[in-house]
Design brief:
Layout (H helix, E strand, L loop, with lengths): L2 E4 L13 E8 L5 E6 L2 E8 L2 E4 L4 E4 L3 E5 L4 E6 L6 E8 L1 H11 L12 E5 L2 H8 L3 H6 L3 H20 L1 H9 L7 H8 L7 H7 L4 H12 L3 H18 L5 H4 L8 H12 L7
Parallel strand pairs: 1-3
Antiparallel strand pairs: 2-9, 3-8, 4-7, 4-9, 5-6, 5-8, 7-10
Helix pairs in contact: 4-5, 7-8
InterPro entries: ExsA-like_N (IPR054015), Homeodomain-like_sf (IPR009057), HTH_AraC (IPR018060)
Protein name: AraC family transcriptional regulator
Keywords: DNA-binding, Transcription, Transcription regulation
Length: 277
Amino acid sequence: MAIENIPEIYIDNTKESLDLFVYDFKMTSDVVKSKVNLGMNMFSFLQVGKKQVHFADTAIAVNKEQSLLLKKGNWLWTELLDTEAIYYCKLFFFSEKKLTDFLSKYTNNVKPYKEESAYFVIENDDYIASFISSLSSKTFDKNSYSTALLSLKFDEIMLYLLDKYDTKFEYYLHSLISKEISPFKKTIESNVNSNLKIEEIAFLCNMSLSTFKRHFTAAYNEPPGKWFQDKRLQKAKTLLQEGILTPSDIYLDIGYNNLSNFSIAFKNKFGISPTDV
């Protein structure tokens, strides 16, 4: 059996590198076994058939009642169990950048210790079945808003699975992220919720302010001031939603010198006053 690199073999060579990609996959009885090298994290949403997936040190059998989230870098051997039928699924690939952006936006981005696993089993339900039906490579290839639509679909399924499996799923998502991080990014991300000024964080990175801003924008695709403000306001919203602390309790820790400036920034970001959360 030849080893295929996916999703590379499914992507038009004329396209640029993609953060999200959908592919309608079918395996028939004439291809009972296949070997693949997985180059991106991938949802395999099963619709028809059943198969067994072999990993380096384990294997799992799945049917149409289940789907899998698979970690990039895996070398997989897939075996069709019912040779009289077909195996049909929707493959939804996503980049590590897309994942880290999602975790930063919607979670506290805590990275607890968790033993790594090559896969996460998803039990299909009515919502997931409806979601799978909405995925089609043809739809997103031909739609002029395909990138925006795919981003919405990615956030949708991720949020649903976070709600369905809670911290178990969140911990697994963190295991999909490469463990190596540059000293620059490590300093940035360890100070997301500090009240240090940009100049002080630049000093910790051993950079001048101008050099820091240039490196930051290259790494995060937006200026540091806006990035830190968005992350800290999101943290403030999470704290206020817990119903224990008040705006007066948290504005200094979020990096604001007075309650008024914090309230204005919060309302500009979320459209409501922090006292109304």
